[in-house]
Amino acid sequence: MKKLGELSVYNTISSYIYLNILFELTVMKRNPVACIFDLDGVLTDTAHYHFTSWRRLGRELDYELTEEKNKLLKGVSREGSLALILEWAGIEMEMEERKMLMDRKNEWYLEEIEKLSESDRFPGVTEFLDELDREGVKYSLGSGSKNARNILNKIGLAHRFKWVVDGNDIKKGKPNPELFIKAADMMEVSRSETVVFEDSTAGLAAALKGGFLTVGFGDDPELSELAHFTIKSWKGFSLDDLSEALSAV
Ligand code: BG6
Ligand code: MG
């Protein structure tokens, strides 16, 4: 027969264990059903080459594109980006000429990304994708770029993405949520349990409009104003970290 003191110690320990398990299950963990990754500035630093190519084009128009203004171009389509630059430069232009400028910018951009390789993936990205695969969490690409498939190939990730939605597949670019909604529909997952990783405010706005969970990627303080939470690097970032952060959302 157990003494009264022993019983209460036993009860206390088992309630502690029970509460801990309950806490882990209900509070600490909120596994996403799927993830959607933006490409430029999230999986690799191509966002930088978009900037340098637009700046080069701007200079031809006697307009200096600053890093601050460039933040507003992130995530925005090629057409949309040029429209903004022309607006800031106070230039009106017919569609035909705009097309020529967009082609020129894209040629410069393609020259810049010509040498991209596997080593240009952001550190830690591969390990995070490996973990998603191991845990059976679906993931897709959600990029507004028409060059996305080419870049995925160059950085050796094309075979990892079963689902890809890019600038060729949509009518309305970010901040419209069309792209992310399409990606979630393809994966047949619930949007409210799917996480979008984005480095741009336009992309985060799109994801929020679509009812997704959002993670801002990078060190721009504006990201934390929009996203559910932010990360600065993939290095050491795990599914456990994601689930824990989601539990607070
Ligand atoms: C987005 C970039 O991913 O793609 C934008 O963040 C870019 O900066 C847009 O303008 C369109 O890219 P592309 O490659 O189709 O010109
Ligand atoms: Mg981006």
Order of neighbouring strands in the sheet with most strands: 3-2-1-4-5-6
Mean pLDDT: 93
Instruction: Tell me how many strands there are.
Output: 6
Number of helices: 11
How much beta, percentage-wise? 5-15%
Bound molecules: 6-O-phosphono-beta-D-glucopyranose, magnesium ion
Radius of gyration: 22 Å
Helix content: 40-55%
The helix-and-strand class reads alpha/beta
Largest sheet: 6 strands, parallel
Q: How are helices and strands ordered from N to C?
A: HEHHHHHEHEHEHEHEH
Spatial gap, N to C terminus: 48 Å
Low-confidence stretches: none
Shape: elongated
Topology of helices and strands:
Blueprint: H1 4-28, E1 34-37, H2 46-60, H3 67-70, H4 78-89, H5 95-113, H6 125-135, E2 138-142, H7 148-154, E3 163-165, H8 178-187, E4 194-198, H9 201-209, E5 213-217, H10 221-226, E6 229-231, H11 239-247
Parallel strand pairs: 1-2, 1-4, 2-3, 4-5, 5-6
Magnesium ion (MG) binds at residues 38, 40-42, 47, 74-75, 199-200, 203.
Give short descriptive properties of this protein.
binds magnesium ion, six-stranded parallel beta sheet, single chain, elongated, 11 helices, alpha/beta, binds 6-O-phosphono-beta-D-glucopyranose, 249 residues
